[in-house]
């Protein structure tokens, strides 16, 4: 009787025959544009060019795909948060952040809103792993705005007493802008953004 083949010597599955980063980018854009609940399997297969077996074998369940998409989206957000977290110019750092937001409203994903904000409106956000990622992004927004405004106050650009309230006001405005963009009312979203920019200009002119 012959022995069974040595399973340890056999490769564990086939190597991926697709560009995983490209495919994940397409999944991020789909989830961002359509939303978790609305994005269908057929759409995921269409944008990735994968079979259903390859898609789910490579990325897991639909919830797993969203988690990977959120992780990639949070990494993409580094550029947007850089002025708040790494800047040294106070008010100008906040203005640079708002300018980045305006660029998004002028770009191809202008009516997609924010993938994180969209996800928080979906029951999937009750998944602990998903919620940890959305909370991380929201906290980053809060902490980034607060840090930049504190630098502005330290530089004498703003009254120290305004830091906390202004950070919350800006945060509420940013989320509102993203919500209006998601509702396909870009005119209102841009008007709200102009309002935030005017607040920053007014406060610095009074110093």
Largest sheet: none
Backbone CA Rg: 22 Å
Order of helices and strands: HHHHHHHHHH
Supply the number of structural domains. 2
By CATH reckoning, the class of the largest domain would read: Mainly Alpha
CATH architecture of the largest domain: Orthogonal Bundle
CATH topology (fold) name of the largest domain = Tetracycline Repressor, domain 2
Q: Quote the beta fraction.
A: under 5%
Q: Name the poorly predicted regions.
A: 1-15
Distance between the termini: 91 Å
Would you tell me the overall average pLDDT?
A: 91
**Which percent bin holds the helix content?**
55-70%
Quickly count the helices.
10
- What's the overall geometry? elongated
Count of DSSP strands:
0
Please state the structural category.
Answer: mainly alpha
Structure, explained:
The chain has 207 residues and is mainly α. It folds into two domains: 54 residues, Orthogonal Bundle (Arc Repressor Mutant, subunit A); 129 residues, Tetracycline Repressor, domain 2. It is 69% helix and 0% strand. It contains ten helices and no strands. Helix 1 packs across helix 4 and helix 9 runs antiparallel to helix 10. The chain is elongated, with a radius of gyration of 22 Å. The termini are far apart. The N terminus is likely disordered.
Keywords:
single chain; 207 residues; mainly alpha; Arc Repressor Mutant, subunit A; 2 domains; 10 helices; disordered N terminus
Task: Itemize the secondary structure elements and their pairings.
Blueprint: H1 20-34, H2 41-48, H3 52-59, H4 62-76, H5 78-86, H6 91-105, H7 115-120, H8 128-154, H9 163-182, H10 186-205
Helix pairs in contact: 1-2, 1-4, 4-8, 5-6, 5-8, 6-10, 8-9, 9-10
């Amino acid at each position: 009787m012959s022995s069974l083949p040595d399973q340890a010597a056999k490769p564990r599955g086939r190597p991926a025959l697709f560009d995983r980063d490209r495919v994940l980018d397409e999944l991020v854009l789909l989830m961002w544009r359509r939303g978790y609940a609305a994005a269908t399997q057929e759409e995921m297969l269409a944008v990735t060019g994968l079979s259903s077996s390859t898609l789910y074998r490579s990325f897991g369940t639909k919830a797993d795909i969203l988690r990977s998409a959120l992780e990639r989206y949070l990494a993409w957000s580094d550029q947007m948060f850089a002025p708040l977290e790494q800047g040294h110019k106070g008010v100008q750092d906040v203005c640079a952040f708002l300018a980045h937001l305006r660029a998004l409203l002028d770009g191809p994903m202008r009516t997609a809103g924010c993938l994180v904000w969209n996800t928080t409106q979906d029951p999937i956000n009750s998944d602990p792993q998903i919620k940890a990622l959305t909370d991380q992004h929201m906290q980053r927004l809060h902490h980034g705005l607060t840090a930049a405004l504190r630098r502005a106050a330290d530089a004498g650009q703003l009254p120290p007493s305004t830091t906390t309230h202004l950070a919350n006001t800006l945060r509420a405005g940013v989320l509102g802008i993203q919500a209006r963009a998601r509702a396909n009312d870009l005119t209102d979203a841009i008007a709200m953004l102009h309002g935030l920019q005017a607040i920053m200009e007014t406060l610095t002119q009074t110093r």
